[in-house]
Design brief:
about 60 residues, mainly beta, about 45% strand
C-alpha cells in the first residue's frame, strides 16, 4: 500500500508474470519477496518506491531456507 502502516520498505525489484506480480521489498536492510496474485485489480508499484505492507493472516505464507 502507499498508505502509511507499521511495516514499510523500498521496492528493489518488480517482476510481472501475467497472473502475478513479484516484488522484492527491502525492510530494515533485509529483502522480502511479496507475490500479488491477480495484479490487474491491485495497485502497481515501481522500483524505488516506498511502500507499506498490510498483512492478512489468512493470506500469508512464510517460506524459510
Amino acid at each position: 500500500s502507499d498508505t502509511e502502516g507499521e511495516l514499510g520498505g523500498k521496492v528493489r525489484r518488480v517482476t510481472y508474470y501475467g497472473s502475478k506480480t513479484e516484488y522484492e521489498i527491502v525492510i530494515n536492510g533485509e529483502p522480502l519477496i511479496v507475490e500479488i496474485y491477480n495484479p490487474q485489480i491491485s495497485k502497481q508499484f515501481s522500483e524505488g518506491e516506498f511502500v507499506y505492507l498490510k498483512l492478512d493472516a489468512e493470506c500469508v505464507r512464510i517460506l524459510k531456507d
